[in-house]
Amino acid sequence: MQYLFTHDNTAELTAPGEVNTLVKPLLGENSLILLSGKQHRRQRQLLLPPFHGERMKAYGELIWRIAHEVMQEIPMGAGLMAREAMQKITMRVILQAVFGLHQGDRYRRLEVLLAERLNLVSSPLTSIFIFFPWLMVDLGPQSIGGRVRRLVEETDQLIYAEIQERRANLDPDRTDVLSLLLSARDPQGEGLTDEELHDELMTLLVAGHETTATALAWALYWIHCLPEVQQKLLAELAPWGHSSDLTSSDLTGSDLTMISRLPYLNAVCNETLRIYPVAMVTLPRRVEKPISLLGYDLEVGSLLLGCIYLIHHRQELYPDSKQFRPKRFLEQQFSPGEFLPFGGGVRRCIGSALAMYEMTLILSVVLGNYELELIETKPVQPKRRGGTLAPGGDIRFRKVSNRLQFRQDKAWATN
To answer: Is residue 9 part of a domain?
Structure first.
């Protein structure tokens, strides 16, 4: 894999976007995933700044608050589906941090429509209409083709309306991704068109919504399956677990950055992404001149895909690879060709830093403030869900108590 990542923009190998045309109807022809060469480099350079450095801190309080809001909406003693709850959190993060929407009819409507649109991809029947739109025959309001077409059209109308309104009323103080992209310029002084913005927003949605939610659902499952993992994690989170309401807490952006860097918390996230990587394969590389690789002679035009899942289960790299052991990430550092949940090279996911930031902060909120009980009776097995490796069924929990209230009651009882 290391060879593919370090040679994917050379005379030997390229990472062409046109081979990913299957996702064009979902993302749009201007999506970063479908671009190649100069177009890809230009778009990537415009998209990268909002996902690195100081920009990330602006999203921390938002992620923390949304995670609390969603968890507080679940009644005490009620059951919850892990992926469903995490999807609600990650969708709101996307709408607020990326789209810059916080309230109003458009926000509420897009929250519903975008979730429905993404759910279509996970169904073998409805995904046909998304990936092969020429089959989308509108036979009336109740036909599948008609429902899908109207869903896509209404969603796009709302997104374009938001882009156009924001372009007409640029606010330099806003830090959401859309605002930053509206102001971004390439070396020639040109910005992104409305169509390019729409397609990149859809790309960021698809790449950052269900993928992160799926990883969080897996993390909650493993943490509650293994008491020793949960105990170590709670011990590390203990100094921060007292803050159940961000607006009345003393947490700052720097505090949230410190939480996101906690060693064992990061090890748990990395092991979650290793054992069942959400994306099972890398984006394709194409052979541009005859090469020999691992004893194989490869002809021009051959497409190469790295299997992330198989690499993450190589026994010489990860002994007892089927066992969930966060400690392995504290004992050893793995190269980009050995641990690659976000791909690599010129096609590495641009939102990887935000995804890890989300995972660490959301888990710290959920685990540090709410006690959950895993009520699954059988081991959960992975299953392909669209293009991701997800739990075979949504993982069921029960919200048992609020850890803050539990600590207050215990302190009162002992005094």
So the answer is: yes
